[in-house]
Design goal:
Shape: globular
Structural class: alpha+beta
Radius of gyration: 14 Å
Distance between the termini: 12 Å
Oligomer: single chain
Number of helices: 4
Largest sheet: 6 strands, antiparallel
Order of helices and strands: EEEEHHEHEEEH
Helix content: 10-25%
Number of strands: 8
Length: 143
């Protein structure tokens, strides 16, 4: 039986056109053109969660389960890179806190199940993620 790879991930998203989207119960939110980082966790399978997000971004998968799905299904929102940190523990909020120092949070986004202000951040660059001991995701390595 294959081992389940667990951990936290950061989706590096580029929004190429400004968007105004209805995000579930959060209501109407504006996303300016630019770069964003979304912090999520996958304690039931990191590879399958990241692949699901990638497929949503490519229009292959359309079901809405999380706030990020509303953004990823937009044509002008593209996942450029994914960074991961393997962990058996729920460290998503800790990572979101670290990322918050590098950008501005979209209030309430992706954090309805915790006390964080946000799990989606508008950033100038995602270069700092390797400084947070995050590794660039390569699907073949995690299988």
């Amino acid at each position: 039986m294959a081992m389940v790879v667990k951990g936290v991930y950061c989706l590096c998203i580029e929004v190429t056109d400004a968007l105004c989207l209805q995000i579930g119960a959060l209501g109407l939110l504006e996303f300016m053109k630019g770069r964003y980082i979304y912090v999520g966790s996958a304690l039931n399978g990191l590879n399958s969660r990241v692949l699901r997000h990638m497929n949503t971004s490519k229009g292959v998968y359309n079901a809405i389960h999380w706030h990020i799905d509303y953004l990823l299904r937009e044509e002008s929102a593209n996942v450029e890179a994914v960074y991961v940190r393997l962990s058996d523990e729920k460290i998503e909020c800790e990572i979101a806190g670290e990322v918050s120092h590098y950008g501005s949070g979209v209030k309430g986004f992706g954090c309805s199940d915790c006390r964080c202000n946000s799990h989606l951040f508008s950033v100038k660059s995602s270069d700092f993620l390797s400084d947070l001991t995050m590794e660039k995701w390569e699907p073949q390595r995690l299988l």
